[in-house]
Write a structure and sequence with these properties.
There is one protein chain. The protein has 189 residues and is of the alpha+beta class. The chain has a single domain, classed as Alpha-Beta Plaits, CATH 3.30.70. Helices cover 20% and strands 39% of the residues. The protein is globular, with a radius of gyration of 16 Å. The termini are close together.
């Protein structure tokens, strides 16, 4: 599994209805994309308490071929054409779990970034992070790491009404999940 996200920060006065309309008209195009475990179409809004307006899709790829087909194909080129080429963050998957609310449609998502502390034994630190059980209201959760920066990311989808705990909070506009069942569950080593 590979995790990927790009975040496009938009002006403070940007009409976020433009992004909502974009997702409403184009989001379904990845609903059957080969190799895509899931894509959460995410936004943050200043009017809802976020420090920024942003469009920040998050992907869990079941195959590297799927990820590469997207990045080098017309899907990502549409982002480049409309917003410029964003920096794409990429993490190696460590675990994936379905939560107690796995059948629910997610309403919010959180992204929690955790640096691996200097002096910590990486394997022990990662194993402890991966062992955390999903809380009530969790639809699904993934843990991944960028070993070039020793930064772990925990991405969690939450059902409507669930209280996200920590991290950056996003609204989920749409969830494409063509190969969600193919994402390996549990620890990935």
């Amino acid at each position: 599994m590979h995790a990927m996200q790009y975040e496009i920060t938009l002006p403070a006065d940007y009409d976020m209805e433009i992004i909502r309309k974009r997702v409403a008209t184009r989001g379904h195009l990845l609903d059957d994309f080969p190799g895509l475990g899931l894509k959460a179409y995410l936004i943050r809004e200043r009017s809802a308490g976020s420090p920024v307006n942003s469009y920040a899709p998050f992907y869990l790829w079941a195959t590297p071929e799927g990820m590469n087909s997207f990045l080098w194909g017309p899907g990502f080129q549409g982002i480049v054409d409309d917003f410029g080429r964003p920096r794409v963050q990429h993490w190696t998957g460590l675990s994936y779990v379905e939560g107690p609310a796995s059948g629910a449609v997610p309403a919010t998502a959180t992204r929690l970034r955790v640096p691996v502390p200097e002096g910590a034994e990486p394997a022990r630190f990662v194993a402890r992070e991966v062992a955390q059980e999903p809380a009530a209201g969790v639809v699904a959760s993934a843990v991944a790491i960028d070993p070039s920066r020793w930064e772990l990311v925990r991405f969690t989808l939450w059902e409507q009404g669930a209280a996200p705990t920590d991290g950056d909070v996003f609204q989920v506009l749409h969830l494409s999940r063509p190969a969600r069942a193919d994402l390996p569950v549990g620890r990935h080593w």
